[in-house]
Amino acid sequence: MEQLTIIIILSYLIGSIPTSIIYSKYFRGIDIRKHGSGNAGGTNVFRVLGWKPGAGVILFDGLKGYIAVAIIARLYYDPILPGGTMMIEEFTLVQIIAGVSAILGHIWTVFAGFKGGKGIATAAGMMVGIAPVEFVVSLAVFTTVFLLSRFVSLGSISAAVAFPLTLVFRWNVFQVEIQDYSILVYFSIGIAALLIYTHRSNIKRLIKGTENKLSSLSLMSSKQKEEAKENISQ
Known about the structure:
This protein has one domain (2-221). The longest helix is centred in the C-terminal third of the chain and has 21 residues, at 152-172. It is globular, with a radius of gyration of 19 Å. Helix 4 (51-70) packs antiparallel against helix 5 (91-107), helix 4 (51-70) packs across helix 6 (120-130) and helix 6 packs antiparallel against helix 7 (132-149). It has eleven helices and no strands. The protein is mainly α.
């Protein structure tokens, strides 16, 4: 099972790349963890530094998940690598293991004291590689909820829940044949639970009515903004 070990390690490491920290530090001269919500994720970059840097960070974080399931997972069947007998026949399961490793790397990155982002973008990239139809539905749910509420966290949670529901609906109502359906359903429920867990502080703020709306945020103080501008101009 050496192939699987290699896949887990490589996927975790690529997931651990702290995109937001690297961008904010080397291109803007600030530590994103000391601004805004303090989270090392794309949404915080979006809020603090603007939509272009935020979109770039989110896209790269998503790419980490996609690479794990679309490229790294295929090493499991690479005859060049050591490994002995293949014990997992379902490629979807291998992809899930790789994708989860990348998500865990993003949430608990080894390159930043095991404190990273919340894993939504990396999970989204993973889902694109495994179940594109369900991803599109989840993306539509996220977009709708966000546009109506202006809460990124609520949109993310709604999208996470929508994924397994879409699987169940397509399989049972439309009778669509889905490869490794049972594995995907149980996995998607687990990943939704994980993402809800990483958003537990957001859920508390939503209940209390103190969650920040993306459209009306000004999370950096005047002093912080001036320092950031000075760092950027140097």
